[in-house]
Design brief:
- With about 575 residues, the protein is α/β, with parallel strands linked by helices.
- It has 4 domains: about 80 residues, 2-Layer Sandwich (Gyrase A, domain 2); about 160 residues, HUPs (Rossmann fold), CATH 3.40.50; about 90 residues, no CATH class; about 180 residues, Isoleucyl-tRNA Synthetase, Domain 1 (Orthogonal Bundle), CATH 1.10.730.10.
- The chain is about 50% helix and about 10% strand.
- The strands form 4 sheets. A 4-stranded antiparallel sheet has the order 1-2-4-3. It has a 4-stranded parallel sheet with strand order 6-5-10-11, sandwiched between helices.
- α16 packs across α19 and α16 runs antiparallel to α20.
- The radius of gyration is 28 Å and the shape is globular.
- It starts with 8 loop residues before the first helix and ends in a 9-residue tail after the last helix.
- The structure holds arginine.
- The site of arginine (ARG) has 9 residues, from α11 and β10.
Length: about 575
């Protein structure tokens, strides 16, 4: 196998049109050739329409001039036809299309390059809060962030995953105090009944502590002292805090393992990590006059954003009681990621309600001079998961839905539909496939809706074999694998002289667009574009398979078709992999 990048046909054609532009109208050299895939030909260029005005001519005339230039030096173009007011309908030679398929098939990376080489990208994702149940919002950041980590990593970026756990703050003083005063409360995982997690137990104890705090002023005072003890590093308090963090992390890890995400314990760099840096950050911002006194607190007033009252929106740098909160920690965090981790791209995957928070953090970092134009920074927001009633997803009693229960439900739904489709699967294998299908279904449903939109959590739809679902794609992959197994999984050689059937052509051109799709996801940070691509690819395969015999075809057609099957199976499997979804061999 060879590892070089395969230049997509679209780019080759675009180069050809660019050269024609420079040749026919030197004053337009360098202009965008505006090449797209087309329904009327392989590709279409709208350059003549886009550039006619600049060339002081009619689109049709410019189109003729470009066609003439392309006739002199065809490059990757077999045939050009002017249509409508000046569209260039472009057909590429069959041989070139077969060569692309062969080259991609020969590459372990499917011919995809590494355009992000040399980039160091921090992705902040998941970040649940210690002693609190992870909710469906954390499911989204975990799934989306993980897919982005895979995509950017595959394109060559050095990805630094950061799990910004909510493991610090005054609430821990209260919880620790409560646990100390209630030694009989059970919350460690080895004391609990199987099926309950330490986080749920802590979550409940936290509520009880909060109630006591609000009703008993002596307890409230003891809790405040505990906060001081925690922040000044009192050994007994720190030991208890560490224990709480470890118990919670264990429960989070169970979810991560089940989801199969990349996050490891080393990626956990929670809020507490920054606590010793906060005073220094505050001093730096104060000296630079970015943080100013307001009502006894230190705040930064935004120069860009106004709050609901029409005044500049404030960022809380230090509270009136002298304490530091979420805002201060994120200031220290961004400085650390730029100055210590030396990242040149920073991504924060959280729900869209935190948009203003991050806008203000980025503004502060820019004003402080930490964030420069060489560094790309983005909040990657996402919408809310809704229940069947169209309201934010909650349990019937209005509580947080336990993620583990949700995943269990998805897997048992998948179990039911897979065993119905394939009753002969042995039990063990069925269980394993159901796990892959159920988890894949949840992930795919999340990734396939446009990120910023809300979506309804609907298990029946998610695990369906029909429509744009993870199960449909996994199944499409298994069907192709079964064809290939029947053929004996041969190493095939492509004969580029074979004339392409229209359905082969459509499939091959779609396969060739894989790298552009991934590049698009890396720019827009929208994994649903990859989902949409894989879905189209699976459907192009279906049309091809309906129109063309594979196993029963004569050579050399048969080998060429098997090559298309192989490349489709590998692309589906690889693309699902970038979404964090496994593609089983059978279902
Ligand atoms: N723990 C926060 C939450 O649950 C998310 C943290 C996101 N990352 C950050 N750097 N603020 O909402």
């Amino acid at each position: 196998m060879t590892n070089h990048e395969v230049l997509p046909l679209l780019d080759q054609v675009a180069d050809g049109v660019s050269q024609a532009i420079a040749h026919a109208r030197p004053e337009l050299a360098g202009a965008d050739p505006v090449v797209r895939r087309s329904e009327h030909a392989d590709f279409q260029s709208n350059a003549a329409l886009a550039l006619a005005k600049r060339a002081r001519t009619k689109p049709a005339e410019l189109a003729d001039a470009l066609t003439g230039a392309l006739a002199d030096d065809r490059g990757p173009i077999a045939h050009v036809e002017v249509s409508g007011p000046g569209f260039l309908n472009i057909t590429v030679p069959d041989q070139l299309i077969w060569d692309q398929v062969a080259d991609r098939l020969a590459s372990p990376r499917l011919g995809v390059g590494t355009p992000h080489d040399g980039q160091r990208t921090v992705i902040d994702y998941s970040a649940p809060n210690i002693a609190k149940e992870m909710h469906v919002g954390h499911l989204r950041t975990t799934i989306i962030g993980d897919s982005l980590a895979r995509v950017l990593g595959f394109l060559g970026a050095e990805v630094i995953r950061q799990n910004h756990l909510g493991d610090w703050g005054t609430q821990f003083g209260m919880l620790i105090q409560y646990l100390d005063e209630h030694p009989d409360a059970t919350w460690r995982h080895d004391e609990l009944e199987p099926g309950t997690s330490a986080v749920s137990a802590l979550d409940e104890l936290y509520r009880a502590a909060r109630q006591l705090f609000d009703s008993d002023s002596a307890f409230a005072d003891r809790s405040r002292n505990r906060v001081v003890a925690l922040q000044s590093g009192d050994p007994a308090t720190i030991a208890r805090w560490k224990e709480i963090v470890a118990e919670s992390e264990k429960a989070f890890r169970d979810i991560y393992d089940r989801l199969g995400v990349l996050l490891t314990p080393e990626d956990s760099v929670g809020e507490s990590f920054y606590s010793h840096l906060l005073a220094n950050v505050v001093a730096e911002l104060t000296e630079a006059d970015i943080a100013v006194e307001s009502d006894g607190a230190l705040v930064m007033f935004s120069e860009d954003v106004t709050g609901p009252d029409g005044n500049p929106a404030p960022l809380m740098v230090r509270k009136r009681d002298g304490g530091y909160g979420y805002d201060t920690t994120d200031l220290a965090t961004i400085r650390y990621r730029i100055q210590d981790l030396k990242a040149n791209r920073l991504l924060y995957v959280t729900d869209s309600r935190q948009a203003l928070h991050f806008q203000m953090i980025f503004e502060a970092a820019r004003r402080a001079g930490w964030l420069t134009d060489e560094i790309d920074v983005a909040h990657v927001p996402y919408g809310t998961v809704l229940g069947p009633d169209g309201r934010p997803f909650k349990t019937r009693s209005g509580g947080t839905v336990r993620l583990m229960d949700l995943l269990d439900d998805a897997v048992s739904c998948a179990h039911a539909i897979v065993s119905e489709k394939n009753p002969d699967l042995p039990g063990d294998e069925l269980d394993q496939i159901a796990e892959q299908a159920g988890i894949g279904a949840v992930k795919y449903a999340d990734l396939s809706t446009s990120r910023i939109k809300d979506y309804v959590f609907d298990l029946d739809r998610m695990v369906s074999f029909n429509g744009n679902t993870g199960v449909y794609l996994q199944y499409a992959h298994t069907r192709i694998r079964s064809i290939l197994r029947k053929a004996g999984d041969p190493d095939v050689a492509i004969d580029p002289a074979v004339e392409l059937h229209p359905a082969e052509r459509a499939l091959a051109l779609e396969l060739d667009a894989y790298s552009a799709t991934i590049a698009d996801v890396s720019q827009t940070l929208e994994p649903h574009k990859l989902c949409g691509y894989l879905y189209d690819l699976a459907r192009d395969f279906t049309s091809f398979y309906e129109a063309c015999h594979v196993l029963g075809a004569e050579e050399p057609v048969r080998s060429n078709r098997l090559a298309l099957c192989q490349l489709t199976a590998r692309t589906l499997q690889h693309g699902l992999g970038l979404l964090g979804i496994t593609a089983p061999e059978r279902m």
